[in-house]
């Protein structure tokens, strides 16, 4: 027995920290526990392990297991948790629904880099949470989604409809550099698409108080049926951690319906068609 125990410990010593975490998770979840504590273990391992672990956690949740999930992965927190507590040095900063706490956390990161930043949160149409933060040197005066051909505002878009997202931006104080970014998210908070004018090399410089900038973003709605939101961010670089002039989560909410194409599921419409051929058996 003594030799056997030494042999097991010897093998564990050569395991990486990631492999040890995977082994510990496997042992802890080989049967359904009443309470499961998961502390960053899903950040290790390959994609197969992560998907398998997520499936197991979801199944335990559906079967009534109480899960305490500790993570810095905000998308995972939104997907798994019903209630989120934000801790800082042992103090509770926020306790509430996942979208409220996660969006507050994202704004709080920028606040620590921008001393005069303010944070505002409120529920909008359909239960969407609007979170606005920023220092206020620049602001989005109007954000609208219109039909690209007629110019009429759109609240419900059709699959494959040509649209244009228009942002009217007001300059309040002198701005050396201005970048506009967008995140497109589905109802669950998953990011469907995003980019900014830093990556497209369209940074504006030397803007003065009173200037008004119009940003137009034409696109084809290749989204699946559902509810979506655009979140605009006005910053100075490719991140809001340097200058967060204004960031508004879920500033514009719209729905997508499918009226012209065969039924499909998912958040994306693909230009895909089945091609079927039958090879008849040759008899001799």
Automatic annotation (TrEMBL):
Domain Wzt C-terminal stretches: 131-269
Top-rank taxon: Bacteria
Signal peptide residues on this chain, from the entry's feature table: none
SUPFAM superfamilies: P-loop containing nucleoside triphosphate hydrolases
Pfam families xrefs: Wzt_C
CDD domains registered for this protein in UniProt: Wzt_C-like
PANTHER family xrefs: TEICHOIC ACIDS EXPORT ATP-BINDING PROTEIN TAGH (PTHR46743:SF2)
Protein name according to UniProt: Wzt C-terminal domain-containing protein
